[in-house]
Amino acid sequence: MNLLAFGFGYSARALARRLQAKGWSIAATARNPADRPGIESLGVRTVDPGDEAALAAATAAAQAILISAPPGERGCPGLAALAPAIAASGAFPDWIGYLSTTGVYGDREGGWVFETSALNAHSVEGARRVAAERDWRQIGRGMGLTVTAFRLPGIYGPGRSSFERLRDGTARRLIKPGHVFSRIHVEDLAAGLELSIARPLAAGVYNLCDDEPASAAEVTAYAADLLGVPAPPAEPFDPAALSPMAQRFYEECKRVSNARAKAELGWLPAYPTYREGLAAILAGDRH
To answer: Is residue 122 part of a domain?
Structure first.
């Protein structure tokens, strides 16, 4: 079995590791030649997305395709490259997964959102994801492709957690009463994708997130306790003192339901809250 990853970042690498362990072959796009040796050292074949013939051959060989590259002003780069490649190859994959964001829901003032909730993105990035999801659904219907979208919150895991910020001194504990967000451990994300590959669903949509939305300040304090270091001092929330990216993060507050993924995919997160996830990361760091 073959997976083609359009974009090979943190999430795609986690899925690749899981599938490689089960005998899958992995190919990934890499536009920059300098990036290719590092990717190939992981046992992954690289494909230049600008090489139409090579991309068509890779799509023809793939039973599953994952798109994790973010959309830009012109839409989803994966859609622009892959739709012609699939048409040229004449061989359609069994599964196409598109990684979106829970930012498509916008702010819900702490309320719960479900896959059926109205989309009300507040940021340019969120609006681009809404458009990319729509475009993939339309292409899926038009070409008979099995496309599933995954709406993801903040992704954390080894090398990408509160521990790194605590260790390098950049962690902050901003207090904005009532503000919570959902998150997902990267291995739980990859497990959800693997289950979906086994159960392809055309025009499917899943929220993949843990069971307990919590504040960033709470997570940082818990990580500090695990490390045995003092938590950063509590700071009153002041949007004027934050970067534009951080401001966008704190503008939205919602709780994301994962009930559909559990019911339809049989998915159960190995790290149902940040507590289990952080403990596992720290245990891995110490080995």
So the answer is: yes
Helix (H, G, I), strand (E, B) or coil at 206: strand
97 domain residue, yes or no: yes
Spatial CB neighbours of 184, under 8 Å, sequence gap ≥ 6: 152, 153, 154, 155, 156, 208, 209, 210, 269
State the angle between helix axes of 186-198 and 10-20 in degrees (0 to 180), rounded to the nearest 10: 60
Q: Tell me, what's the pLDDT at 287? A: 56
DSSP letter, residue 211: S
Distance CA 64, CA 197 (A): 7
Determine contact, residues 133/67, Cβ cutoff 8 Å: no
Q: Which residues contact 214 (CB under 8 A, 6 or more apart)?
A: 180, 181, 183, 273, 274
pLDDT in tens, 236-261: 988 887 888 788 888 899 999 999 99
Q: What is the largest CA-CA distance in the chain?
A: 59
Instruction: Reply yes or no on whether the pLDDT at 91 is more than 90.
Output: no
Model pTM greater than 0.85?
A: yes
- Which tokens is 258 given? 């994962």
> Which residue type occupies 99?
L
HSE, CB side, 13 Å, CA atoms: give it for residue 167: 10
| Cα 216 to Cα 214: distance, rounded to the nearest angstrom | 7
177 within domain boundaries: no
| Interval 13-42: pLDDT, tens | 999 999 999 999 999 999 999 999 999 999
The two tokens of residue 282 are 């720290």
Q: At 272, phi and psi to the nearest 5?
A: -65, -20
pLDDT tens for residues 143-172? 999 999 999 999 999 999 999 999 999 999
- Adjacent-strand bridge partners of 75: 72
Helix (H) or strand (E) holding 160: none
> Does residue 220 belong to any structural domain of this protein?
no
How many domains would you assign to the chain?
1
